[in-house]
């Protein structure tokens, strides 16, 4: 066989192999998730382990989340004002800023930032512990590394994500207020009262929180899995970190579409 | 009860491997190993790089399962243990890893305290006393607050040693305790291994390729080559041995039964193929 035909066959083979590998990997991740859940008892009984990870993934992401939230809010305020004032409803800019943040931008951007700030750090840390045989040493000391190392990091990430998304949204609303009310001169009372009237807790806020919980779970799972599964070499760890960031970003955006289509169909 | 051992049990070896085989995928590494470690002994397993020494220790520690043969520790078949039983057994084992494997996010003190905190309910003051005693035994009490990154290779090895014996194990496994050490540290580690073994009433298995240091401190030596035990004996017997393998190893000769090269097609055929 030769010519274009064999190239097509080779291409199809490649696609097939990637699909099969992907399905296998998904299976591994699922089994890993169950192993983590089964070994999660210690994360509760020795809560300081989880709190420590909550600190590392949550508190250390505070700066980037705060600053990014503020800037996103500023931009939303500018764009929102520009569009809404054409229709003479510049007062509604508060509603627009708040709803875009609570429903979409808060959970999604906070999760993307969380994946690149905390997710990559978790993968790197677990990967290096594997590479330097610290996980094996722990296992030889009759301490289960999934319970002692993986589960607390997983739960730390799951718990910090909704808090970070909420902070992101709050900072964004503040940024939007700053640019439209303080700088441009939109009416302060209208900004807040319209927002209060339009934002529903059960619908907008709750669905946003659910989104950020889902993203937090997925990103944390990807981060701990890639670290635990990495090839124990320097290149292996660096590849795993890249995979964490890329896979998390794709998963967040795809899941956001799925969740939105279930949650917000008007 | 467990503590009242009969004479037969006391005399039975603590570790015994019978016809143990192991392969990574298709490549056989161990091809039928028989060895035993009696209680109180320090036993060395020697052989060239890549002959399967680390693999052998992993089999004893239950991190790998033999594809054939049995690995028994304290009368129990390690390969047949469930996770809980294996963990119960490992609490009575200490292992020194080839590269120390200290936890890099903890201080020296916390590293040594780790097994105590995980497996005992001792109050902090007691843990502190025990940790300082172990660090004193390896001469590093003054380094308790340092981070692993601030230690030299030899110091890290000694900290790892203190951590391995934190729970007063019945069996201590050492993977290359001498690799990369200067002659003085090497002597210190050697003496420590012997002293700790005798003080704890433990047994030790030491994997190494340092013949001279081992001959000084061990009770028995096995030589491994090509996945088999090729020679064994007490240090006296080994020194007097006429076996060509032992002779090559003890005198560090490049030529002899131990090949220098990893198995490969002859270099002539490769060079020839390149020219063709
Ligand atoms: N995880 C693995 N997967 C595949 N092959 C392996 C693996 N670990 C070791 N090997 C192979 O098994 C053989 C024995 O390895 P092992 O680590 O037991 O050697 P060793 O005697 O400890 O060597 P050294 O003295 O260099 O530490 C080596 O040839 C190595 O290539
Ligand atoms: Mg080795």
From TrEMBL, chain A:
Predominant location: membrane
GO molecular function per UniProt: phospholipid transporter activity
Places the protein is found: Cell inner membrane
Record key words, sorted: Cell inner membrane, Cell membrane, Membrane, Transmembrane, Transmembrane helix, Transport
Spans traversing the lipid bilayer: 22-42, 54-81, 93-115, 163-185, 205-228, 240-264
Membrane topology value: Multi-pass membrane protein
Pfam families: MlaE
Entry GO terms, CC: ATP-binding cassette (ABC) transporter complex
Claim: Glycosyltransferase is one of the keywords in the record: no
Subunit structure: The complex is composed of two ATP-binding proteins (MlaF), two transmembrane proteins (MlaE), two cytoplasmic solute-binding proteins (MlaB) and six periplasmic solute-binding proteins (MlaD).
Function: Part of the ABC transporter complex MlaFEDB, which is involved in a phospholipid transport pathway that maintains lipid asymmetry in the outer membrane by retrograde trafficking of phospholipids from the outer membrane to the inner membrane. Probably responsible for the translocation of the substrate across the membrane.
Family stated for the protein in its record: Belongs to the MlaE permease family.
NCBIfam families from the UniProt entry: MlaE family lipid ABC transporter permease subunit, perm_MlaE_1
Name the UniProt record assigns to this protein: Intermembrane phospholipid transport system permease protein MlaE
Native organism: Thauera linaloolentis (strain DSM 12138 / JCM 21573 / CCUG 41526 / CIP 105981 / IAM 15112 / NBRC 102519 / 47Lol)
Organism taxonomic ancestry: Bacteria, Pseudomonadati, Pseudomonadota, Betaproteobacteria, Rhodocyclales
TrEMBL record, chain B:
PANTHER family hit by this protein: INTERMEMBRANE PHOSPHOLIPID TRANSPORT SYSTEM ATP-BINDING PROTEIN MLAF, PROTEIN TRIGALACTOSYLDIACYLGLYCEROL 3, CHLOROPLASTIC
Domain of life of the native organism: Bacteria
Protein's name according to its UniProt entry: ABC transporter
Source organism of this protein record: Thauera linaloolentis (strain DSM 12138 / JCM 21573 / CCUG 41526 / CIP 105981 / IAM 15112 / NBRC 102519 / 47Lol)
Gene3D superfamilies per UniProt: P-loop containing nucleotide triphosphate hydrolases (3.40.50.300)
Keywords annotated in UniProt: ATP-binding, Cell membrane, Membrane, Nucleotide-binding, Transport
Domain annotation ABC transporter: ranges: 15-251
Pfam families found in the cross-reference section: ABC_tran (PF00005)
Gene Ontology molecular function: ATP binding; ATP hydrolysis activity
């Amino acid at each position: 066989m030769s010519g274009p035909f064999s190239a097509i066959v080779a291409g199809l083979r490649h696609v097939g192999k990637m699909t099969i590998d992907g399905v296998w990997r998904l299976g591994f991740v699922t089994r890993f998730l169950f192993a983590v859940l089964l070994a999660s008892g210690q994360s509760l009984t020795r809560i300081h382990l989880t709190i420590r990870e909550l600190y590392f993934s949550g508190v250390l992401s505070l700066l980037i989340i705060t600053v990014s939230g503020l800037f996103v809010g500023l931009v939303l305020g500018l764009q929102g004002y520009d569009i809404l004032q054409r229709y003479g409803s510049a007062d509604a800019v508060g509603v627009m800023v708040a709803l875009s943040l609570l429903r979409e931008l808060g959970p999604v951007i906070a999760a993307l930032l969380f994946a690149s700030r905390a997710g990559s750090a978790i993968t790197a840390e677990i990967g290096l512990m594997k590479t330097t045989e610290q996980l094996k040493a722990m296992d030889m000391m009759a301490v289960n590394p999934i319970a002692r190392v993986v589960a607390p990091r997983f739960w730390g990430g799951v718990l910090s994500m909704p808090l970070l998304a909420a902070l992101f949204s709050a900072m964004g609303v503040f940024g939007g207020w700053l640019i439209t009310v303080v700088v441009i001169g939109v009416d302060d009372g209208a900004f807040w009262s319209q927002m209060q009237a339009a934002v529903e807790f059960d619908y907008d806020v709750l669905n946003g929180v659910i989104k950020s919980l889902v993203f937090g779970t997925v990103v944390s799972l990807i981060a701990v899995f890639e670290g635990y599964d990495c090839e124990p070499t320097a290149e292996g760890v660096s590849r795993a970190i890249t995979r964490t960031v890329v896979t998390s970003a794709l998963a967040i955006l795809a899941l956001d579409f799925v969740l939105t289509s279930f949650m917000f169909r008007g | 009860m467990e503590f009242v051992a009969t004479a037969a049990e006391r005399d039975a070896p603590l570790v015994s491997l019978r016809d143990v085989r192991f392969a990574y995928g298709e490549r056989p590494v161990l091809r039928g190993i028989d060895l035993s470690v009696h209680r109180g002994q320090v036993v060395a397993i020697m052989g060239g790089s890549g002959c399967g020494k680390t693999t052998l220790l992993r089999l004893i520690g239950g991190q790998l399962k033999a594809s054939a043969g049995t690995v028994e520790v304290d009368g129990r078949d390690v390969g047949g243990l469930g996770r809980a039983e294996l963990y119960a057994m490992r609490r009575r084992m200490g292992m020194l890893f080839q590269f120390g494997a200290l936890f890099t996010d903890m201080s020296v003190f916390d590293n040594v305290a780790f097994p105590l905190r995980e497996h005992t309910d001792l109050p902090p003051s007691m843990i502190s006393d025990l940790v300082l005693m172990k660090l004193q035994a390896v001469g590093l009490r003054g380094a308790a607050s340092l981070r692993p990154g601030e230690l030299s290779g030899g110091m890290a090895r000694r900290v790892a040693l203190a951590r391995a014996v934190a729970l007063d194990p019945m069996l201590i496994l050492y993977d290359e305790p001498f690799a990369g050490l200067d002659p003085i540290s090497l002597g210190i580690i050697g003496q420590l291994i012997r002293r700790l073994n005798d003080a704890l009433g433990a047994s030790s298995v030491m994997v190494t390729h340092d013949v001279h240091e081992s001959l000084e401190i061990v009770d028995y030596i096995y030589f491994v080559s090509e996945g088999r035990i090729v020679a064994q004996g007490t240090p006296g017997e080994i020194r007097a041995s006429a076996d060509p393998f032992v002779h090559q190893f003890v005198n560090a000769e490049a030529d002899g039964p131990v090949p220098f090269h990893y198995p490969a097609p002859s270099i002539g055929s490769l060079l020839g193929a390149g020219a063709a």
